[in-house]
Amino acid sequence: MKYLTPQNVIQIHFELVEETGGSQGLRDLGLLESAVMRSRQTFDGKDLYSTLILKSAALIHSLLLNHVFVDGNKRTATVAMIEVLILNGKKFKATNKEIVDFALWVENKKPKLEQIADWIKKHTK
Q1: What residue spans define the domains of the chain?
Q2: Which of 34-72 are b and which e, b meaning 16 or more Cβ less than 10 Å from the residue's Cβ?
Q3: Which of 40, 67, 84, 104 has its C-alpha lying 20 to 30 A from 5's C-alpha?
Protein backbone atom coordinates (compact mmCIF):
# COMPACT_ATOMS: atom_id res chain seq x y z
CA MET A 1 0.00 0.00 0.00
CA LYS A 2 1.36 3.39 -0.99
CA TYR A 3 0.41 6.47 1.01
CA LEU A 4 0.78 10.21 0.67
CA THR A 5 2.84 12.10 3.22
CA PRO A 6 1.79 15.42 4.73
CA GLN A 7 4.42 17.03 2.48
CA ASN A 8 2.83 15.42 -0.60
CA VAL A 9 -0.55 16.90 0.37
CA ILE A 10 1.01 20.34 0.95
CA GLN A 11 2.56 20.14 -2.52
CA ILE A 12 -0.80 19.17 -4.06
CA HIS A 13 -2.41 22.12 -2.26
CA PHE A 14 0.13 24.68 -3.41
CA GLU A 15 0.05 23.48 -7.02
CA LEU A 16 -3.77 23.50 -7.12
CA VAL A 17 -4.10 26.96 -5.59
CA GLU A 18 -1.41 28.33 -7.90
CA GLU A 19 -3.21 26.85 -10.92
CA THR A 20 -6.83 27.55 -9.98
CA GLY A 21 -6.64 30.55 -7.65
CA GLY A 22 -7.26 31.21 -4.00
CA SER A 23 -5.15 31.73 -0.92
CA GLN A 24 -2.22 29.49 -0.17
CA GLY A 25 -1.35 28.47 3.31
CA LEU A 26 -1.46 25.74 5.89
CA ARG A 27 -3.78 26.50 8.79
CA ASP A 28 -2.76 23.67 11.11
CA LEU A 29 0.11 21.23 10.55
CA GLY A 30 -1.09 18.95 13.35
CA LEU A 31 -4.52 18.58 11.74
CA LEU A 32 -2.89 17.84 8.39
CA GLU A 33 -0.66 15.17 9.90
CA SER A 34 -3.62 13.64 11.72
CA ALA A 35 -5.75 13.61 8.55
CA VAL A 36 -3.00 12.02 6.45
CA MET A 37 -2.11 9.42 9.09
CA ARG A 38 -5.72 8.40 9.82
CA SER A 39 -5.83 5.91 6.95
CA ARG A 40 -2.77 4.12 8.39
CA GLN A 41 -4.26 3.55 11.84
CA THR A 42 -4.16 0.08 13.33
CA PHE A 43 -5.63 -1.60 16.37
CA ASP A 44 -4.22 -4.80 17.80
CA GLY A 45 -1.99 -5.12 14.74
CA LYS A 46 -4.84 -4.85 12.22
CA ASP A 47 -5.65 -1.96 9.90
CA LEU A 48 -8.70 0.01 11.03
CA TYR A 49 -9.37 0.77 7.36
CA SER A 50 -8.89 -2.59 5.70
CA THR A 51 -9.18 -1.66 2.02
CA LEU A 52 -7.73 0.94 -0.31
CA ILE A 53 -11.24 2.35 -0.79
CA LEU A 54 -11.79 2.77 2.97
CA LYS A 55 -8.33 4.30 3.36
CA SER A 56 -9.10 6.76 0.55
CA ALA A 57 -12.46 7.58 2.15
CA ALA A 58 -10.78 8.22 5.50
CA LEU A 59 -8.27 10.54 3.83
CA ILE A 60 -10.79 12.72 2.00
CA HIS A 61 -13.12 12.74 5.02
CA SER A 62 -10.39 13.95 7.37
CA LEU A 63 -8.88 16.48 4.98
CA LEU A 64 -12.26 17.99 4.14
CA LEU A 65 -13.67 18.18 7.63
CA ASN A 66 -10.47 19.35 9.36
CA HIS A 67 -10.04 22.35 7.01
CA VAL A 68 -6.27 22.19 7.31
CA PHE A 69 -5.62 24.82 4.64
CA VAL A 70 -6.58 28.48 4.43
CA ASP A 71 -8.33 27.84 1.10
CA GLY A 72 -8.76 25.03 -1.41
CA ASN A 73 -9.59 22.27 1.06
CA LYS A 74 -12.13 20.53 -1.20
CA ARG A 75 -9.81 20.65 -4.21
CA THR A 76 -6.83 19.42 -2.22
CA ALA A 77 -8.74 16.64 -0.46
CA THR A 78 -10.27 15.37 -3.69
CA VAL A 79 -7.00 15.35 -5.63
CA ALA A 80 -5.20 13.69 -2.69
CA MET A 81 -7.85 10.94 -2.60
CA ILE A 82 -7.55 10.36 -6.36
CA GLU A 83 -3.75 10.41 -6.12
CA VAL A 84 -3.78 7.61 -3.50
CA LEU A 85 -5.99 5.50 -5.74
CA ILE A 86 -3.70 6.04 -8.74
CA LEU A 87 -0.54 5.37 -6.68
CA ASN A 88 -2.04 2.00 -5.82
CA GLY A 89 -2.83 1.01 -9.38
CA LYS A 90 -6.49 2.03 -9.57
CA LYS A 91 -8.27 4.10 -12.18
CA PHE A 92 -10.70 6.77 -11.04
CA LYS A 93 -13.43 7.94 -13.37
CA ALA A 94 -15.91 10.72 -12.65
CA THR A 95 -16.93 13.95 -14.34
CA ASN A 96 -15.84 17.29 -12.90
CA LYS A 97 -19.44 17.93 -11.83
CA GLU A 98 -19.64 14.56 -10.06
CA ILE A 99 -16.39 15.29 -8.23
CA VAL A 100 -17.52 18.76 -7.16
CA ASP A 101 -20.91 17.45 -6.03
CA PHE A 102 -19.17 14.65 -4.11
CA ALA A 103 -16.82 17.04 -2.28
CA LEU A 104 -19.71 19.36 -1.40
CA TRP A 105 -21.76 16.40 -0.20
CA VAL A 106 -18.96 15.16 2.06
CA GLU A 107 -18.33 18.63 3.47
CA ASN A 108 -21.95 19.70 3.95
CA LYS A 109 -23.83 16.48 4.71
CA LYS A 110 -21.04 14.74 6.65
CA PRO A 111 -21.99 11.24 5.50
CA LYS A 112 -20.73 8.09 7.18
CA LEU A 113 -17.37 6.80 6.06
CA GLU A 114 -19.02 3.76 4.46
CA GLN A 115 -21.18 6.04 2.30
CA ILE A 116 -18.10 7.92 1.13
CA ALA A 117 -16.37 4.62 0.40
CA ASP A 118 -19.38 3.42 -1.61
CA TRP A 119 -19.19 6.52 -3.83
CA ILE A 120 -15.44 6.10 -4.35
CA LYS A 121 -15.87 2.40 -5.15
CA LYS A 122 -18.47 3.19 -7.84
CA HIS A 123 -15.95 5.46 -9.57
CA THR A 124 -12.86 3.27 -9.20
CA LYS A 125 -11.63 0.33 -11.28
Answers
A1: 6-119
A2: ebbebbeeeeeeeeebeebbbbbbbbbbbbbebbbbebb
A3: 104
Q: Do 65 and 110 contact (CB within 8 A), yes or no? A: yes
Residues 55, 61 contacting (CB under 8 angstroms): no
Specify the length of the chain in residues: 125
Answer whether 69's CB lies under 8 Å from 78's CB.
no
Dist. CA 20–CA 15, nearest whole Å: 9
CB atoms under 10 Å from CB of 4, counted, come to 19
What's the pLDDT score for residue 40?
Answer: 96
Predicted model pTM: 0.95
- According to CATH, the superfamily of the domain at 6-119 is Fic/DOC protein, Fido domain (1.20.120.1870)
